[in-house]
Amino acid sequence: MLGVILPDQVVDGVTYLHYEGTLDWAEALEDIPEGMYDPGVMEQVEDVLQPVATEFWLDKETYLPHRTDIEMTFNVEGTDFSMDMSMEYSHYNEPVDIPEPPVGPTPFDSGNGAGVSGF
C-alpha cells in the first residue's frame, strides 16, 4: 500500500492521526503465501478490481481506527462500477451478544451460482 501521512484532524472534538493511501489488490495478493487461495483468484482480481483509494483516522494513543473511507472501481464483463464506503468504529472492548446461527443455513453462493469463489 502506498500511503501519505496527512496533518492530524479534529473529528467531533477529538484529534486523530490522518492517513490516505492506495491499495493495489494484485500486489497485495502477491504477498500471500502460495496455497492460501485458489490460483484463479489472482486472475479474477487483476481482471476486476482496480487499485482502491483509502483514507483513515486513527486514535493518537491506541492507534485503533476511528473511521475508514474507501473508494473503489471495478469492471465486470465490460461494465464499470464504483463504490464509496465509509466505516466508523466505536465501542471497543465492550461486551457483545452473538446470536446462535440460523437453522438450516444455505451457502453464500446457493441459488444463482454467483457467489465468491477461491477463498
Structure explained in plain terms:
The protein is mainly beta and 119 residues long. It has one domain (2-88). Helix content is 13%, strand content 42%. A hairpin with a 5-residue loop joins strand 3 (52-59) and strand 4 (65-76). The radius of gyration is 18 Å and the shape is extended. 3% of the residues are buried. The model has no long low-confidence stretch (mean pLDDT 83).
Q: Average pLDDT across residues? A: 83
- Please state how the strands of the largest beta sheet are arranged side by side: 1-2-3-4-5
How many DSSP H or I helices?
Answer: 2
Major sheet details? 5 strands, antiparallel
Structural class: mainly beta
Helix content class: 10-25%
Q: Please provide the ordered H/E string of secondary-structure elements.
A: EEHHEEE
Supply the number of structural domains: 1
> What oligomeric state is this?
single chain
Regions with little confidence, pLDDT below 50 for 5+ residues: none
How many strand elements?
5
- Shape estimate: extended
- Please compute the radius of gyration using only Cα atoms: 18 Å
Task: Give the DSSP E fraction (strand runs of 2 or more residues).
Answer: 35-45%
Give the CA-CA distance, first to last residue.
22 Å
